[in-house]
């Protein structure tokens, strides 16, 4: 007995000696807030335990949500890809980097020779760092010389980005810092579910409420965000354009126009006024299915407020007329002059970790770094000079993300590099996308996991995760944030930027890609963005180690620009533009065969195509499968009990998910999150109708029908 106790004591002492704790600073890889944290690793002999401890920064102020708390679970997951995999006879086999790079280069050369330079395309993502997004754009244009590059942000920010550019002359998600939110007396949240999508931002709204703000939420569901609202407008999906026109009408009729602002700082008011005057409120109420009185109350609350903020997100943007919906909300903001002051402004809340920076530096089909245009001779000259090539060598603009998929389907694009996206799950009409990708002569996917898209690849390249990859991202506020590397890379994993440099070297373009660190790439990006609209020239790594800097920041002494448009807008004449755009009547409509509106979106515990969060035990346990939110009265009409498997059919196909009764959703609408694949994949049924202004797909509305798969409700 004594012996055992002694032994135990001995082992405990030994254990203590070998137990250790290390902590490394990092940043959550998921949404646009970019909360900071420390990943603490406790080591007790062979056992390792990790915990995430939030740290302070001026955006999230020491908060972290459920996803951030558990993000390390996917990064440390045993299914992480550790070496390159090539498909041989339909199965993946391990290959060396040397073999992988030789294969890519051989395929690029042969495809471009057989089918033309534009036949090889690049598909990027908003999770890539600024450095990687920048380098991907340069890689496509300089190493591949292809015009075909676009990225998943097309499905995310394109409606708001185009609207911001056209109305204000500049596209930065929020015109104001988040700290302005508590200063507003009225806040309109249109098609945004902050409570589940940017949870750590909620305290800004709580604070506003404490200060007496009136909050209006526009959403077909009464979401967790709507729980905060003083007024909820549960409109019919896809009718936001009409709603914003209705609000404008009340503001005009009831004298809330800021004539001095309109006259000094805007163009196009008269045309807007004529358009709005002809509008009938009962027609607006009929189209949106929101009582005219409620629309009037919303407009009055907005009009009366000395300061007010309008925030939109994907609910109204991911529509076949998403651009028009955003422009009409901007009309409302401009007509009342509620922008460019503390507590007054407009914002489209960005989504992905680098949803903002990812769209500024050249991943878009028509764009060069710093928001320069690939069709503008001056811009071409400037960037060609930075890159050390002749402007004539720069390709022209290509097509948008989904159109690239259509070109793949049509056999025009025959080779594709995917870096940072999982389009087989996240594209509209995804069954078509999966089929199209299988037609490619060569598909190479760089990912941390064997995603649904990687499964279709000829070659899969393992990349570092957020824990291992140093770099910068630009968050929801338009603030550039530095993310340090917290851990060594596992296996033979490479950073995305290293992969691009290695391929470029093998293609004989090494002299344009001789980078040895993320910081070196950032320094070139600074130069490339200099003088552009998204000017990062004054932002340095040294500075970012101390602060999060708002762009534009043109020189090292510039403080950065928290609030935009205080004096002038970014168009050459300094004035903002009103727009007159119709409500698109030709949108996918319900009929007797497809009587319900299907809308899609997110849940708190999961992230986008789910590649990462489905691999996190804590997050997966929280919500293991997709559900269809359905009103109990609608469900009963189709014999659907709570928790039953439901078959959802649209004009394109079917998905099967479990029902969840929700008496806070419109009776004519069902909601399904898109984070799952296989039978539960809702994008197999969504519509690929694109907004003609920005090519945004209509993820948020199509016509559907439902029926129970197994009738568990009866015995
Ligand atoms: N938990 C979690 N957070 C995320 C993400 C995630 O996947 N999971 N993704 C990140 C990314 S990339 C993005 S883009 C953002 C997205 O953030 P959000 O846009 O806020 O999220 P969604 O759930 O797509 O849509 C928001 C709301 O739009 C509503 N809606 C549906 N149809 C309509 C309509 O016709 N009109 C209006 N007005 N509303 C409608 C939905 O009911 C939903 O509540 O979230 C980011 N944060
Ligand atoms: N029905 C419906 N569909 C939608 C939406 C919707 O609301 N409804 N929303 C759309 C929106 S807003 C978005 S943003 C898209 C996003 O959709 P996706 O582009 O598919 O986004 P993710 O799931 O983030 O895909 C990222 C993939 O890249 C990998 N990855 C993560 N970080 C890195 C990295 O640093 N490097 C590399 N190489 N790989 C990385 C992940 O493992 C994952 O496989 O989905 C869109 N699809
Ligand atoms: S998901 Fe967004 S809100 Fe949650 S911890 Fe990560 S960055 Fe913060
Ligand atoms: Mo997004």
From TrEMBL:
Family annotation (SUPFAM superfamilies): ADC-like (SSF50692), Formate dehydrogenase/DMSO reductase, domains 1-3 (SSF53706)
Cited Pfam families: Molybdop_Fe4S4, Molybdopterin, Molydop_binding
CDD domains found in the cross-reference section: MopB_CT_Fdh-Nap-like, MopB_Nitrate-R-NapA-like
Keyword field contains Hydrolase: no
SMART domains: Molybdop_Fe4S4
Gene Ontology CC: membrane
Keywords: 4Fe-4S, Iron, Iron-sulfur, Metal-binding, Oxidoreductase
GO biological process: respiratory electron transport chain
Iron found in the keyword field: yes
GO MF term set: 4 iron, 4 sulfur cluster binding; metal ion binding; molybdopterin cofactor binding; NADH dehydrogenase activity
EC number of this enzyme: 1.7.99.4
InterPro entries on file: Asp_de-COase-like_dom_sf, MoPterin_dinucl-bd_dom, Mopterin_OxRdtase, Mopterin_OxRdtase_4Fe-4S_dom, Mopterin_OxRdtase_prok_CS, Prok_molybdopt-oxidoreductase
Segments forming domain 4Fe-4S Mo/W bis-MGD-type: 21-79
Entry cofactors: Mo-bis(molybdopterin guanine dinucleotide)
NCBIfam families recorded: AssmNtatRedNasC
PANTHER family xref list: NADH-QUINONE OXIDOREDUCTASE SUBUNIT G, RESPIRATORY NITRATE REDUCTASE
Record's protein name: Assimilatory nitrate reductase catalytic subunit
Originating organism: Geobacillus kaustophilus (strain HTA426)
Lineage: Bacteria, Bacillati, Bacillota, Bacilli, Bacillales
């Amino acid at each position: 007995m004594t012996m055992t106790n002694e032994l135990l004591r001995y082992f405990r002492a030994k254990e203590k000696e070998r137990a250790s704790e290390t902590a490394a600073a990092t940043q959550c890889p998921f949404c646009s807030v970019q909360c900071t944290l420390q990943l603490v690793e406790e080591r007790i002999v062979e056992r390792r335990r990790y915990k995430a401890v939030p740290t302070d920064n001026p955006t999230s102020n020491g908060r972290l949500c459920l996803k951030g708390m558990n993000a390390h679970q996917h990064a440390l997951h045993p299914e992480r890809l550790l070496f390159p995999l090539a498909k041989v006879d339909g199965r993946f086999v391990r290959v060396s980097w040397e073999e992988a790079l030789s294969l890519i280069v051989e395929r690029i050369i042969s495809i471009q020779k057989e089918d033309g330079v534009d036949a090889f395309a690049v598909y990027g993502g908003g999770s890539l760092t600024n450095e990687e997004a920048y380098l991907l754009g340069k890689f496509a244009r300089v190493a591949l010389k292809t015009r075909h590059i676009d990225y998943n942000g097309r499905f995310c920010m394109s409606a708001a980005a185009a609207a911001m550019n056209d109305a204000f002359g500049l596209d930065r998600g929020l015109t104001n810092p988040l700290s302005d939110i508590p200063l507003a007396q009225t806040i309109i949240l249109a098609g945004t579910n902050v409570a589940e999508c940017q949870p750590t931002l909620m305290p800004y709204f709580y604070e506003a409420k404490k200060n007496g703000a009136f909050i209006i939420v526009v959403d077909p569901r009464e979401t967790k965000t709507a729980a905060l609202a003083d007024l909820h407008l549960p409109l019919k999906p896809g009718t936001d354009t009409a709603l914003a026109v209705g609000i404008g009408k009340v503001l005009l009729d009831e004298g809330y126009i800021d004539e001095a602002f309109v006259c000094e700082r805007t163009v196009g008011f008269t045309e807007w006024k004529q358009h709005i005057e002809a509008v009938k409120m009962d027609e607006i109420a009929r189209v949106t299915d929101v009582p005219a009185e409620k629309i009037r109350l919303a407009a009055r609350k907005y009009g009366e407020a000395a300061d007010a903020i309008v925030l939109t997100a994907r609910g109204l943007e991911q529509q076949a007329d998403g651009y028009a919906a955003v422009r009409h909300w901007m009309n409302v903001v401009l007509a009342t002059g509620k922008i460019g002051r503390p507590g007054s402004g407009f914002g489209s809340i960005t989504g992905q970790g680098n949803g903002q920076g990812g769209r500024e530096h050249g991943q878009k089909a028509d764009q060069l770094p710093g928001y320069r245009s690939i069709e503008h001779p001056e811009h071409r000259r400037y960037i060609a000079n930075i890159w050390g090539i002749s402007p004539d060598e720069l390709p022209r603009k290509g097509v948008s993300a989904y159109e690239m998929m259509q070109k793949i389907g049509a056999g025009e694009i025959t080779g594709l590099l995917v870096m940072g996206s999982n389009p087989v799950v996240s594209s509209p009409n995804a069954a078509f996308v999966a089929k199209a990708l299988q037609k490619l002569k060569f598909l190479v996917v760089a990912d941390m996991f064997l995603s649904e898209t990687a499964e279709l690849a000829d070659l899969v390249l393992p990349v570092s995760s957020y824990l291992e990859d140093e770099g910068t991202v630009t968050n929801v506020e338009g603030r550039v944030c530095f993310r340090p590397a917290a851990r060594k890379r596992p296996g033979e994993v490479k950073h995305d930027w290293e992969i691009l440099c290695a391929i470029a070297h093998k293609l004989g373009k090494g002299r344009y890609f001789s980078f040895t660190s993320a910081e070196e790439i950032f320094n070139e990006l600074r130069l490339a963005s200099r003088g552009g609209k998204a000017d990062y020239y004054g932002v340095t790594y040294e500075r970012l180690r101390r602060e999060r800097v708002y762009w534009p920041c043109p020189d090292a002494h510039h403080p950065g620009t928290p609030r935009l448009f205080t004096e002038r807008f970014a168009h050459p004449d300094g004035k903002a533009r009103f727009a007159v755009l119709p409500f698109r009547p030709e949108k996918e409509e319900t009929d007797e065969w497809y009587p319900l509106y299907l809308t899609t979106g997110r849940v708190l515990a999961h992230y986008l195509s789910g590649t990462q969060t489905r691999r996190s035990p804590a997050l997966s346990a929280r919500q293991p499968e997709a559900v269809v939110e359905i009103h109990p009265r609608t469900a009963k009409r189709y014999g659907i009990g709570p928790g039953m498997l439901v078959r959802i059919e649209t004009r394109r196909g079917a998905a099967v998910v479990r029902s969840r009764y929700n008496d806070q959703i419109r009776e004519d609408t069902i909601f399904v999150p898109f984070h799952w694949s296989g039978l539960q994949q809702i994008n197999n049924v969504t519509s690929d109708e694109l907004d003609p202004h920005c090519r945004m797909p209509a993820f948020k509305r199509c016509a559907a029908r439902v029926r129970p798969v197994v009738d568990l409700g009866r015995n």
